């Protein structure tokens, strides 16, 4: 099962051309030198607190960034580096997005028409009905408008669009907001099943606890970059198996591990520190941390920290 | 979007745009200066310049008379500037009155009892329910036409939009926590309105006021054009244009063309001024 | 359930319409009563040798010596009986005049309304699609300038260019001079209608275009358009399936809500072109102190605006699923 990666992101940076107070312009770098890869059959979780640029990663991969965004670095699928044109061709076919809320459905179109997409053929309609059955969405749901869906129904409808597309890579953006643990696990089970069918799944979430349970591998996101990429097993084992000080701090902040908050705040993209982005909050900070920090391999995982061992 | 676009590191502001704010302020001041000098020119130019002179009647534009002359031989440029000057005064006075009405009504609707709020909303619907021009004709008729009619007419018909904006802003501020705190401290509703709410209304008030000028000026000239506004002896763009109608078929295009064009310019200048002030006062609205 | 909802809806509207019309009649009556113009003087006007006694008789006949409230009630009562009085200007019943003039105005207003609606929507869509690119920037500037041009001036400019200089269109009126009404052809009527209609649609065209542009830009930046793109829908499909569908409703609503500006604009356009419609009659009534006609037209125009707003709300209710399917959730 652990074969070649199907999608890989190398040194990705995304910045926005912004107006400050409407009158001054500057570039806001929201993702910097990010690296990630995902293989068929596995769930990679991208974990990080809100504001760490997680959702934008999904948009960058699918070529959905707005016009005032500039991106650099490489995104490749099945070994081929993707251009914007390629992404536009692949999205909806090879890549599928599972968005976070019902606001991603057109308010004026019935559910069935939205899930099937424009001009569906008989096979597609059949497939949609099958998928709805699988997700326990009864036939009445098809005729509803988005505003008539309950939160749980909406989430299942959104997932069915991804399943119907038959995409190889599924990117789910915050699929469990506001759900209690049982319901969230239920929601995530679907993604486990999809991965077991051979799809590559990227789960973007701030719910680290859940991520530990469901994922194969975890990428920890901080201020727009990956600080650590490791087997989920390491996170289950505990602090000592982790590599980056931020990952360790996240682990300690979990309720069952002491509930110890991390001091300080994640820096706003406009005021990023030099070198290591975590250094202002890091107890191990040295002068060398202000230089460019590369991603390096430590104990079978990857980490962006010069002190990790 | 480009995949390969080089991204400058960090968050350096772009040097070229660094003075956009200064530029905006500069333009606003310039526009204000132009408008003020048109007003001054109109007020100071001697009436002797527009004495009837039948030896010069109906001349097309020339160096001596850039806008030509009318059928009484009066210089159209001078008449136009005098007319614009009157328009600017009428526009400023009527909009100011209207904006003050809007402020009072908007704050009252948001702070008073729900009964008052309903009533004010109903009045706004009512004012908006009669076509503007018809209401203006009625009011002008009630005042016996003339300058007074135009001023009152324009003042009492233009406040509705701004009043709605101010009402919703006040409601938003009143729902904030520090207002609650102030109430608990025993401050009266009136005290809170004066000390906490009115200061926040200043930007909206100023922007709303300036953006009202163009409408006020257009309605003043329309009403005068129809014969309800300023009297034929007064210099006014509406009068000039309605006079020009008589000579259209003779091909004397300059009688209507330049005065109207200048009116459009003044309206556009006020509009620009409003937009610039908006950018200075409320920067987040300025997104190109 | 559904019929009950419609009943409630209709009832609410009837109550609002009646209160509005009562309020409008009170206000307009108060306004015309305030006028310093002497109606008797206005009535006898050009007729020489009207004695003081005769004037007093007319005043007595019109009830001018009664207190205002009594006069209002008398006027209101006759209105309820469908009697709006006799126009001083045309010496005919006000209702007949309104009926006749409104027919002419309706042709003008509807032409301008459809024209500005359709073309404005089209241009607005183009601007929205080109958001931020140069065609959008140019069109936006043009529309903003158009918004600052007074209706009556652009009418005069059109007359100067197309009638005086080029001779393409007549100088005004709704029919050729000296031709009996029953011999005027439809083509001649249309020929007379084009310039006034263009003039009337000038301002609203720019408004519609700018409004449509804003809406389309909002929709194209929405979550659901992002998701549609993520699912591989082409640009055109996104526009057709999501863009147009979602801006149609606000556009249609706004168009029906613009009856007030339409009527107001028609007063100016009809004056410039001497077009014998209700708008021209409104200003003529005001100029000639023809109080019955002025009051009649004011009431009628308020009703016209009200009907527009009501149609806008009804269409919203029919088209928007949130209201249509959600009537039970009110």
Automatic annotation (TrEMBL), chain A:
Compartments where found: Cell membrane
Topology in the lipid bilayer: Peripheral membrane protein
Domain ABC transporter positions: 7-248
Enzymatic class: translocase
Protein name (database record): Nickel import system ATP-binding protein NikD
Reactions catalysed: Ni(2+)(out) + ATP + H2O = Ni(2+)(in) + ADP + phosphate + H(+)
A molecular function GO annotation: ATP binding
Claim: 4Fe-4S is one of the keywords in the record: no
Keywords linked to the UniProt accession: ATP-binding, Cell membrane, Ion transport, Membrane, Nickel, Nickel transport, Nucleotide-binding, Translocase, Transport
Binding partners and assembly: The complex is composed of two ATP-binding proteins (NikD and NikE), two transmembrane proteins (NikB and NikC) and a solute-binding protein (NikA).
SMART domains linked to this entry: AAA
Alphabetized SUPFAM superfamilies for the sequence: P-loop containing nucleoside triphosphate hydrolases
Record's keyword annotation contains RNA-binding: no
Enzyme Commission code: 7.2.2.11
Family annotation (InterPro entries): AAA+_ATPase (IPR003593), ABC_Ni/Peptide_Import (IPR050388), ABC_transporter-like_ATP-bd (IPR003439), ABC_transporter-like_CS (IPR017871), Oligopep_ABC_C (IPR013563), P-loop_NTPase (IPR027417)
Family in the record: Belongs to the ABC transporter superfamily.
Domain of life where this protein originates: Bacteria
PANTHER family attached to this UniProt entry: NICKEL ABC TRANSPORTER, ATP-BINDING PROTEIN, OLIGOPEPTIDE TRANSPORT ATP-BINDING PROTEIN APPD
Signal peptide, first to last residue: none
Primary residence: membrane
Pfam families: ABC_tran, oligo_HPY
Automatic annotation (TrEMBL), chain B:
Transmembrane segments: 24-45, 84-110, 122-141, 197-217, 251-270
Record-linked Gene3D superfamilies: MetI-like (1.10.3720.10)
Database matches in InterPro entries: BP-dependent_transpt_permease, MetI-like, MetI-like_sf
PROSITE patterns in the record: ABC_TM1
Main localization of the protein described in the UniProt heading: membrane
Location(s) in or outside the cell: Cell membrane
Domain of life assignment: Bacteria
Domain named ABC transmembrane type-1: residues: 84-274
Keyword tags: Cell membrane, Membrane, Transmembrane, Transmembrane helix, Transport
Family recorded in the similarity comment: Belongs to the binding-protein-dependent transport system permease family.
Xref: PANTHER family: ABC TRANSPORTER (PTHR43386:SF23), OLIGOPEPTIDE TRANSPORT SYSTEM PERMEASE PROTEIN APPC (PTHR43386)
Name under which the protein is recorded: ABC transporter permease
Organism, as annotated: Blautia hansenii (Ruminococcus hansenii)
UniProtKB/TrEMBL annotation, chain C:
Membrane-traversing stretches: 13-34, 102-130, 142-169, 189-210, 247-269, 293-319
Cellular location(s): Cell membrane
Keywords recorded for this protein, A-Z: Cell membrane, Membrane, Transmembrane, Transmembrane helix, Transport
Lineage: Bacteria, Bacillati, Bacillota, Clostridia, Lachnospirales
Residue stretches making up the ABC transmembrane type-1 domain: 102-316
Entry superkingdom: Bacteria
Protein name as it appears in the record: ABC transporter permease
UniProt key word Cytoplasm: no
Similarity field: Belongs to the binding-protein-dependent transport system permease family.
First-listed, main subcellular location of the protein, grouped into a coarse class: membrane
InterPro entries, per database record: MetI-like (IPR000515), MetI-like_sf (IPR035906)
């Amino acid at each position: 099962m652990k074969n070649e990666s199907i999608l890989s992101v190398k040194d990705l940076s995304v910045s926005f051309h912004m107006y400050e107070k409407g009158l001054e312009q500057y570039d806001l770098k929201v993702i910097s030198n990010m690296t990630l890869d995902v293989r068929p059959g596995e769930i990679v979780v991208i974990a990080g607190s809100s504001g760490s640029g997680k959702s934008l990663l999904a948009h960058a991969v699918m070529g959905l960034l707005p016009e005032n965004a500039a991106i650099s670095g490489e995104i490749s699928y099945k070994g081929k580096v993707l251009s914007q044109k390629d992404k536009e061709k692949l999205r909806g076919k090879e890549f599928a997005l599972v968005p976070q809320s019902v606001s991603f459905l057109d308010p004026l179109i019935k559910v069935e028409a939205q899930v099937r997409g424009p001009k569906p053929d008989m096979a597609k309609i059949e497939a949609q009905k099958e998928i709805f059955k699988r997700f326990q969405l009864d036939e009445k749901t098809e005729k509803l408008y988005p505003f008539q869906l309950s939160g749980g129904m909406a989430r299942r409808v959104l997932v069915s669009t991804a399943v119907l597309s038959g995409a190889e890579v599924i990117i789910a953006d915050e699929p469990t907001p506001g759900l209690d643990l049982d319901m969230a696990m239920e929601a995530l089970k679907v993604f486990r099943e999809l991965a077991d069918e051979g799809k590559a799944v990227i789960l973007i979430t701030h719910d680290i606890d859940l991520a530990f349970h469901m994922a194969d591998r975890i990428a920890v996101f901080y201020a727009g970059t990956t600080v650590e990429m490791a087997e989920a097993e390491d996170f289950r084992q505990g602090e000592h198996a982790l590599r980056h000080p931020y990952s360790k701090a996240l682990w300690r902040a979990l309720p069952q591990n002491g509930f110890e908050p991390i001091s300080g705040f994640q820096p706003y993209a406009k005021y990023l520190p030099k070198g290591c982005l975590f250094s202002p909050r890091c107890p191990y900070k040295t002068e060398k941390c202000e230089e460019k920090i590369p991603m390096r391999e430590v104990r079978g995982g990857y980490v962006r920290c010069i002190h990790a061992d | 979007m480009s995949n390969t676009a080089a991204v400058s590191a960090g968050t350096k502001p772009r040097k070229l745009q660094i003075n956009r704010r200064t530029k905006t302020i500069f333009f606003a001041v310039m526009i204000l200066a132009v408008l003020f000098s048109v007003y001054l020119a109109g007020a100071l130019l001697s009436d002797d310049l527009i004495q009837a002179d039948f030896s010069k009647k109906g001349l097309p534009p020339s160096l001596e008379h850039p806008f030509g002359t009318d059928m009484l031989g009066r210089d159209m440029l001078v008449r136009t500037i005098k007319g614009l000057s009157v328009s600017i005064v009428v526009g400023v006075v009527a909009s100011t009155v209207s904006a003050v009405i809007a402020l009072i009504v908007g704050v009252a609707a948001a702070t008073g009892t729900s009964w008052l709020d309903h009533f004010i909303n109903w009045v706004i619907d009512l004012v908006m329910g009669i076509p503007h021009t018809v209401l203006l004709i009625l009011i002008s008729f009630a005042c016996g036409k003339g300058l007074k009619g135009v001023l009152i007419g324009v003042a009492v018909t233009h406040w509705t939009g701004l009043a709605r904006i101010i009402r919703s802003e006040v409601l938003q501020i009143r729902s904030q926590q520090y207002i609650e705190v102030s109430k608990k401290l025993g401050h009266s509703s009136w005290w809170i309105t004066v000390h906490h709410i009115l200061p926040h209304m200043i930007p909206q008030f100023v922007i709303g006021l300036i953006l009202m000028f163009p409408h006020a000026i257009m309605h003043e000239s329309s009403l005068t054009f129809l014969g309800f506004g300023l009297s034929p002896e007064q210099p006014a763009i509406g009068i000039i244009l309605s006079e020009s109608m008589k000579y259209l078929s003779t091909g004397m295009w300059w009688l209507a063309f330049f005065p109207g064009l200048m009116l459009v310019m003044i309206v556009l200048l006020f509009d620009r001024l409003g937009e610039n002030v908006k950018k200075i006062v409320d920067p987040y609205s300025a997104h190109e | 359930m559904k019929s009950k909802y419609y009943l409630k809806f209709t009832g609410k509207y009837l109550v609002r319409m009646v209160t509005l019309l009562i309020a409008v009649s009170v206000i307009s009556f108060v306004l015309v009563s305030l006028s310093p113009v002497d109606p008797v003087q206005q009535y006898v006007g050009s007729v020489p040798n009207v004695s003081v006694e005769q004037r007093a008789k007319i005043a007595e006949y019109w009830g001018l010596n009664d207190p205002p409230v009594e006069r209002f009630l008398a006027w209101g009562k006759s209105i309820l009986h469908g009697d709006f009085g006799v126009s001083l200007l045309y010496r005919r019943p006000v209702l007949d005049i309104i009926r006749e003039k409104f027919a002419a105005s309706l042709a003008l207003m509807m032409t301008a309304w459809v024209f500005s609606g359709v073309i404005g929507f089209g241009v607005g869509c183009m601007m929205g699609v080109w958001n931020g690119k140069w065609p959008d920037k140019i069109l936006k500037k043009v529309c903003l300038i158009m918004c600052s041009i007074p209706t009556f001036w652009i009418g005069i400019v059109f007359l100067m260019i197309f009638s005086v200089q080029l001779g393409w269109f007549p100088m005004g009126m709704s029919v050729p001079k000296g031709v009996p009404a029953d011999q005027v052809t439809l083509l001649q009527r249309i020929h007379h209608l084009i310039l006034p209609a263009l003039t009337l649609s000038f301002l609203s065209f720019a408004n519609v275009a700018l409004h449509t542009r804003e809406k389309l830009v909002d929709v194209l930046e929405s979550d659901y358009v992002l998701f549609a793109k993520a699912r591989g829908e082409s640009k055109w499909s996104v526009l057709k399936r999501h863009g147009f569908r979602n801006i149609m409703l606000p556009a249609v609503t706004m168009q029906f809500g613009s009856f007030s500006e339409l009527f107001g604009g028609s007063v100016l356009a009809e004056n410039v072109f001497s077009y014998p419609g209700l708008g021209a009659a409104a200003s003529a009534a005001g100029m000639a102190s023809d109080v019955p006609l002025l009051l009649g037209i004011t009431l009628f125009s308020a009703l016209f605006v009200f009907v527009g707003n009501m149609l806008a709300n009804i269409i919203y209710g029919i088209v928007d699923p949130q209201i249509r399917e959600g009537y039970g959730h009110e």
